[in-house]
């Protein structure tokens, strides 16, 4: 991974959350906010349908960055994101990243997570330290 | 109407969470963290971990519960009906493994108003049973129409 340099792209991560993913993530995380798991509730409060958990999307950004270090959970030292859009089940989420800084012991990656042309997480900055 | 800022600096009681094997596996499965170190004890140990290790974002499982009383505190006074999770930062320290006991202390760092929105910034500091910091979270909630 140390051959990454500023301006390089990190490998793209593509994942399509299935219809019941928000239910599994609710159970796994403890976040049972009905806007994520109850379509009727979500539409009653003006949303198109139930929406993905922002922190699940952040976990995909974390995974794309950890993958740069072979998936080593110790490598990801910091991740900062801004939630800027609603994500939906059954639509492909694409995480892309560009190296901003690359040193011997620290790589900083600027990451975006999008569905279609809709950027859901942007200005995400990850700091990775190779093992 | 201006935002209330009396709660800046306020601390809430720490929350304690004991990390279990099946919870890590369940969370890792839900986020697609398929590295065997998150699922299999032998793989984790050969990877240099004490036991099965949590994926970094598992930190929400043990730190978010500490945020509950802060979010609901009338002294903070957020309108939950128009609240959005605006941004999030985590800074990780020691890895979290099965059997760890994690204590998370929440506090309010900043409250301000910008463009008619209220910004409420909280911090959680999570430490393990050896008092080593495992994660520091910065949670920014945005309330529209303050």
- Classify the secondary structure makeup of chain B into a structural class: alpha+beta
What gross morphology of chain A would you assign? elongated
Strand element count of chain B: 5
Q: For this entry, what is the oligomeric state of its chains?
A: heterodimer
Helical fraction of chain A equals 25-40%
CATH homologous superfamily descriptor of one domain in chain A: Hotdog Thioesterase
Low-confidence stretches of chain A: none
The third-level CATH topology of one domain in chain A is Thiol Ester Dehydrase, Chain A
The shape of chain B, in one word, is elongated
Structural class of chain A: alpha+beta
- Spatial sequence of strands, sheet with the most strands of chain B: 1-3-4-5-2
| Major beta sheet, strand line-up of chain A | 1-3-4-5-2
* Biggest beta-sheet profile of chain B: 5 strands, antiparallel
What would you note in describing this structure?
The complex is a heterodimer of chains A (131) and B (146). Chain A has 131 residues and is an alpha+beta fold. Chain A is elongated, with a radius of gyration of 16 Å. Chain A contains 4 helices and 5 strands, in the order βααααββββ. Chain A has helices at 21-29, 34-37, 39-44, 54-67; strands at 9-15, 76-83, 93-102, 107-115, 118-128. In chain A, strands 1-3-4-5-2 form a 5-stranded antiparallel β-sheet, with helices on one face. Chain A has a domain at 9-18 and 52-128: Hotdog Thioesterase (Thiol Ester Dehydrase, Chain A, Roll), CATH 3.10.129. In chain A, strand 4 (107-115) and strand 5 (118-128) form a beta hairpin. The model of chain A has no long low-confidence stretch (mean pLDDT 94). With 146 residues, chain B is α+β, with helices and mostly antiparallel strands. Chain B has a domain at 15-19 and 55-144: Thiol Ester Dehydrase, Chain A (Roll), CATH 3.10.129.10. Helix content of chain B is 21%, strand content 35%. Chain B contains 3 helices and 5 strands; from the N terminus they run βαααββββ. Chain B has helices at residues 21-31, 41-46, 59-72; strands spanning 15-18, 83-92, 101-114, 117-127, 133-144. Chain B has a 5-stranded antiparallel β-sheet. The model of chain B has no long low-confidence stretch (mean pLDDT 96). The chains are: A alpha+beta (131), B alpha+beta (146). Chains A and B meet through helix 1, helix 4 and strand 2 of A and helix 1, helix 3 and strand 2 of B.
């Amino acid at each position: 991974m140390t051959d990454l340099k500023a301006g390089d792209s990190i490998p793209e991560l593509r994942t399509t959350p299935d219809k019941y993913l928000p239910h599994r993530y609710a159970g796994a995380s403890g976040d049972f906010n009905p806007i994520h798991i109850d379509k009727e509730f979500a539409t009653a409060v003006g949303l198109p349908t139930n929406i993905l958990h922002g922190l699940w999307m952040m976990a995909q950004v974390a995974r794309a960055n950890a993958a740069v270090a072979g998936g080593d959970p110790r490598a990801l030292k910091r991740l900062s994101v801004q939630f800027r859009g609603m994500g939906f089940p059954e639509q492909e989420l694409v995480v892309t990243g560009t190296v901003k800084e690359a040193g011997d012991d620290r790589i900083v990656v600027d990451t975006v997570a999008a569905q279609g042309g809709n950027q859901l997480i942007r200005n995400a900055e990850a700091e990775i330290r190779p093992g | 109407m201006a935002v209330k800022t009396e709660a800046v600096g306020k601390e809430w009681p720490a929350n304690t969470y004991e990390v279990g094997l099946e919870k890590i596996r369940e969370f890792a499965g839900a986020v697609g963290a398929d590295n065997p170190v998150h699922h299999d004890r032998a793989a984790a140990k050969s990877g240099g971990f004490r036991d099965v290790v949590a994926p970094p974002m598992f930190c929400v499982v043990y730190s978010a519960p500490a945020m509950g009383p802060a979010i609901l505190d009338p002294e903070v006074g957020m309108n939950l009906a128009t609240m959005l999770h605006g941004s999030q930062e985590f800074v990780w320290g020691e890895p979290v493994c099965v059997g760890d006991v994690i204590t998370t202390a929440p506090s309010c760092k900043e409250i301000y108003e910008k463009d008619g929105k209220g910004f409420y910034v909280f911090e959680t500091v999570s430490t393990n049973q050896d008092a080593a910091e495992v994660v520091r979270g910065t949670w920014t909630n945005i309330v529209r129409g303050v």
